[in-house]
Amino acid sequence: CPEENRNELITHKAGFDGVDQVKVNKILKKLEESSRFGQLKAKKDAELQEKIEEQRRIFERLQAQDLTFVKSRVEHCINKVEEDRDLSKYIVCVDMDAYYASVEERDDPTLVDKPMGVGDSAMLCTANYTARKFGVRSGMPGYFARALCPHIKIVKPNFEKYTAVSQQIRTIFARYDPNFSAMSLDEAFLDVTNYAQSHNQSPDDVVQQIRDEIRGETKLTASAGIAANKLLAKVCAEVNKPNGQFRLDNNKDKILDFLRDLPVRKICGVGKVSAKILNGVLDIHTCGDLLDKLVYVNMMFSEISFNFYMRISLGIGSSAINTNHTRKSMSTSRTFTPTNKVSSFYKTLRYIAEELARRLDQENMEGKTLSVVFKKQSFVQFTRQKILTRYISSRHDLYSYSRAILDKEIPIS
DNA sequence: GGCCGTTAA
DNA sequence: TAGTTTAACGGCC
């Protein structure tokens, strides 16, 4: 589902003029509390809060200390990572607007201007902009959406159609960067440096042209961000959404200015939990705050996390598009209505084994580590895995080995 | 090595 | 009535 901001209560966001935020949040809170999913979430929230308070106490002790040597260590890290700064490329992130919903509107004009979502009563992949005015969001259960907006039309997704449209836009992308990298059906990164230079066009014009071609050939709108690297281009794609584009100059000072007041949550890779931890422990809200407090980030987080946050705060990211990756795992999963019947576990497992075997066969792959994921009625999940003595891929092997793993857990409490 | 949690689309 | 699916990676024990 190609959408942003899923599963979160509404904050202050453009396009929410008509919404009674207080009312919306009240309805959502009630629905949340009355579902098992919401109850688990509340429990996890409480655990996170506790962890944050513990970390906060550590931070407060740290503040009393002389961190001069840490400061010089961090400065050294910054100088080192500055060598990675590449301002020579024009990287573009293209993202279709409310993708699935827009395709459905295009093909059924009676849906236009009406609140609509794509998905089912369990989950909405996408909501159109009219539905968003009611507080409906992508990634929200469809029955939540109905509570917020009783007249919402919920349309079943039609993936063949979305894939076909995706083919069309990818054909367009290839004309501008044969090496482009598709992140999902509706989103891609392109390096338009060569195209802009050889056609003597500004990157802005190139991107406008790409978006015009998308509009012309699919009757759908896209938004885009242009910047020196993927990290920044991705954020820029949101700035003038929908149906807009934004370019951030390939200039270090401009980049730091742009980041100064940008909430860390906007950065790809900083999710809800990380943002909460940064906020609650170190009072970090924006990327500027992050830069100012790198010394503490260095003290409080792992080396890997510190490096990640340091690069964010400096706006340093990868400008490489063609990172051809090889698959490391393949999985199939299904959620079914809660039951204790072992026979129904076996039935689902057989189905899953068949599907996985088929997909493994398609890609001519085998696996040696087998994991079984269990989900309970409470939504608590757990995993059991086993490294096999040989590589497997047949539906029979998948079923019998995973059934052995399953049987060891029965009865599940 | 095994498992959990986070993130993203 | 009803809260997904897939892939990757970090952290902890």
From TrEMBL:
Domain UmuC: start-end pairs: 91-271
Protein's name in the database: DNA polymerase kappa
Organism: Funneliformis mosseae (Endomycorrhizal fungus)
